[in-house]
Amino acid sequence: MTQEFFEALGAELSFARVRHPTDNALTERFYATVKQEEIYLMGNYLDELSAREELGRYIESYNHSRPHQALFNFTPAHVLRSITKAC
Fold it and tell me: What b/e readout covers 21-39, taking b as 16+ CB neighbours within 10 angstroms?
């Protein structure tokens, strides 16, 4: 099911070695944050559609509204815009 989901998005899966979360540390950190700030707080979603909508809103906020300490309290969208302007 996960593989089909990513294929539908046109995304490529990247697998880490078993028991080596540091192989994909950025992704692991993102998933931990999503769980802490959205999934665990929400509890249960009504259905798959509402889960997709809520997670989509969270990801939009994560990228465009939520400051990131590792980015000196800028949003990922702001940093990306700054990088693309500089090039």
Answer: eeeeeeeeeeeeeeeeebb
* pLDDT level of residue 68 (50, 70, 90 thresholds): very high
pTM above 0.85, yes or no: no
Counting every residue written for the chain, the total comes to 87
Q: How confident is the model at residue 56 (pLDDT cuts 50, 70, 90)?
A: very high
Domain map (residue ranges) of the chain: 24-86
43 φ, ψ to 5°? Answer: 85, -95
- The radius of gyration of the chain from alpha carbons, rounded to an integer in Å, stands at 15
Using CA atoms, how far residue 61 sits from 26, 38, 82, 86, in Å, is 18, 11, 18, 24
